[in-house]
Specification:
This protein has three domains: about 5-155, no CATH class; about 165-235, Resuscitation-promoting factor rpfb (Resuscitation-promoting factor rpfb fold, Single Sheet), CATH 2.20.230.10; about 245-365, Glucose Permease (Domain IIA). The strands form five sheets. Strands 11, 14, 15, 16, 17, 18, 19, 20, 21 and 22 form a ten-stranded antiparallel sheet that branches. Strands 3-5-8-9 form a four-stranded antiparallel sheet, covered by helices on one side. The chain has a three-stranded antiparallel sheet with strand order 2-1-4. By secondary structure, the protein is of the alpha+beta class. The protein is elongated, with a radius of gyration of 45 Å. The longest helix has about 35 residues, at about 5-35. It contains five helices and 22 strands. The termini are far apart. Pfam families: G5, Peptidase_M23. InterPro entries: Cell_wall_metabolism_enzyme, Dup_hybrid_motif, G5_dom, M23ase_b-sheet_dom. GO terms for molecular function: metalloendopeptidase activity. This is G5 domain-containing protein.
Length: about 375
């Protein structure tokens, strides 16, 4: 036997085996370093970059040789409701992922970083320690992007909860004060307009997946004080002074029957001729207290109550345009001329009553 040749071949085989091992180790070292270092781009462990060499020199050499030889690494699976959704290498790496999710979140809803009070990723997310192929490792950015997108698609299971401080300049609308005055008649008014104020409002706001779920004012600062609006409202009754103050209850027409004795009875108002359907206008500001058919001769009747215990009546209507309880302004259309009740033709019966006593309205209608 050629013992020398056998020895040479054995050395050659051993050399080749060592070369292959070294090649595999180097390839896996390159892969491992590329994958493990990438997620730690945002980490600083005692001002040193975390690399495979750190782990070899400082921790378990055997584990790291296994990474180099097998291409597998000890790490953590990111599990959502028993489903693996990602892989990371360190347990506390979740804090960095959380910071990246927060950054995307506040950029999208336009919140300053220094305004953030707290931030939580709510859901059944946990880390499970395992050993897996180094190629499965993901960067912090990849994991944070996935979690952020998941919060939009699966809002029931993943919620991004953010509490922050929000400041806003808010307008303060002027208050309104009504001031009675004897310097004007009933129905007359004068307005002194106020000014809008401004205040800086600081609130504590809670967002859940970009929707505001809670907002509490924690302080306010007046920037510009509002000036109240004043409405001076006349209280002097023009009736007491014999002044004309009622708007004509029809557009045109002529009086066919006046106030007073008529046909062996007393006519409590005036009749104004018109066509069926013509507008009937309220003579003065007030509130509708009656709007229905009246079987006492008025037919369809509207009664409007005014200040100082005055009422106006509108009878024989064809239609009602207002209901009991409605507030009306002088000149509003409240009904239509008709021929209902005790009527000999289309017309409006109009009355003015003071303290529930009918008075002649003729001289109180502005011509």
């Amino acid at each position: 036997m050629d013992k020398k040749g056998d020895s040479i071949r054995l050395v050659e085989k051993f050399t080749v085996s060592i070369f292959i091992i070294i090649l595999v180790v180097n390839i896996n070292l390159i892969k491992a370093n590329a994958k493990i270092n990438e997620p730690f781009s945002n980490m600083n462990l005692n001002n040193k970059t975390y690399t495979i060499s750190n782990r070899i020199s400082n921790n378990n050499i055997i584990d790291n040789l296994l990474v180099a030889l097998t291409g597998k690494v000890n790490g953590y699976e990111l599990v959502l409701e028993d489903r693996v959704v990602g892989y990371t290498s360190l347990e506390n790496n979740m804090n960095n992922i959380k910071d990246l999710v927060l950054q995307k979140y506040i950029n999208e809803i336009n919140i300053r970083q220094d305004a953030v009070l707290s931030f939580e990723i709510e859901g059944d997310i946990k880390l499970k320690e395992d050993r897996f192929d180094v190629s499965l490792l993901q960067t912090n950015k990849e994991l944070s992007d996935y979690i952020y997108d998941l919060s939009k698609e699966d809002k029931n299971n993943i919620k991004l909860s953010l509490k922050c401080i929000d400041e806003e300049i808010v307008k303060v609308q002027p208050s309104t004060t009504i001031i009675p005055t004897e310097d004007m008649y009933l129905g007359e008014s004068k307005v002194e307009y106020g000014e809008v104020g401004l205040k800086n409002q600081v609130r504590e706001v809670t967002y859940k997946n970009k929707e505001i779920t809670e907002s509490n004012i924690i302080r306010e600062e007046i920037i510009k004080k509002e000036v109240g609006k004043k409405i001076y409202r006349g209280t002097k009754n023009p009736y007491d002074y014999g002044m004309a103050f009622l708007k004509s209850p029809t557009r045109g027409g002529y009086m066919t029957s006046g106030y007073g004795e008529r046909w062996n009875s007393f006519h409590k108002g005036i009749d104004i001729a018109g066509n069926i359907g013509d507008d009937v206008l309220v003579a003065m500001d007030g509130e509708v207290i009656y709007s229905q058919y009246n079987d006492g001769g008025y037919g369809n009747l509207i009664i409007v109550k005014h200040e100082d215990n005055m009422n106006t009546y509108y009878g024989h209507l064809d239609d009602f345009y207002v209901k009991v309880g409605e507030k009306v302004k002088k000149g509003d259309i409240i009904g239509a001329i008709g021929n209902t009740g005790f009527s000999t033709g289309p017309h409006l019966h109009f009355e003015l009553r003071v303290d529930d006593e009918p008075v002649d309205p003729t001289n109180y209608i502005v011509q």
